[in-house]
Amino acid sequence: MALTLDHPVLSSLLPVVLLIGIGFLAGRLKLVRGEAVRDLSNLVFLVLVQALLFRSMATAQLDKLDLRSVALYYIVAGVMFFVLLFIQGLNSRSAVVALAAIFSNTLMIGVPLVQLAYGPAGLLNLFTLISMHALVLLTLATIVIELLVAREKEASGEAGRRHIAATVAQAVKNAILHPVPLPIIAGFLYSLTGIGLHPIVERPLELLGSAFGPVALVLVGVTLSRTAIGPHVKGALMISGLKTILHPALMALAGWALGLSGLPLAVMVVAAALPVGANVFLFSQRYHKAEELVTASVAISTAMAVVTVSVVMWLLPRGA
């Protein structure tokens, strides 16, 4: 498959690479100071993501979602998450790394890629995945990380020992009141009212949400400019390989085992082959876990995806 600038893979991935590059240049030229990075991270995590997630759930047509088609995606991703977590060790850092291996950049890269490659029918399949992507994977990761953080604090003496039920209850509370699951839950509950969002409210939310991807990727570049990549290349290559090679391979095998084929299977595997999503970078920043490793993984997996996504699309054409 020849790659030209108008090829769906390159036309979707190159803007992402350029945005990361712009952030990297801005960081190197000190246009964004180091002390401002944390404030920018808070802006993205506490404002832009809130608007994006709430509006996505509040306007989702939940009655049209084919939950059966996405169930396999999340089962495979969940199994992969927990296997990686246990292999690396039960700690909060391992949870962030495991999330990086299963959480795809479905919005910034997935939407334009699938639109160009598969058209409206492909987008319908992808939107079914995206509508629950953050709800399922980020909520799962948040609960697990909060539980592990609580356990680590008790072990280090930062928090008094509590009954396991109290620890679980506190972790679940922290997870629900977390900046990611909270707007998802609020948006989902609002969608059940059937009222819909008035344009005066929806338009600002749409503008804020559309700013999430570009600002988050520029922030990745700024952080990358301040990160010594050398010590993290091996780890970043491992995470990138898990994300862009193993993840789609497992999805394809599971799909074939259940008799799936054609467009639904192709879109599902392409989604799994996408590079590490920026939300994982924000998670690592929030919990101060594996920040440099995740930053390097976002950049390297994006570059690797040029090849891996092309191979997936070649092996799994629309009518496969």
Automatic annotation (TrEMBL):
Regions that span the bilayer: 12-29, 41-58, 70-87, 94-118, 124-149, 180-201, 207-224, 236-257, 263-282, 294-316
Membrane-topology descriptor: Multi-pass membrane protein
Keywords: Cell membrane, Membrane, Transmembrane, Transmembrane helix, Transport
Location(s) in or outside the cell: Cell membrane
Database matches in InterPro entries: Mem_transp_PIN-like (IPR004776), Na+/solute_symporter_sf (IPR038770)
Entry similarity comment: Belongs to the auxin efflux carrier (TC 2.A.69) family.
Protein name per the record: Malonate transporter
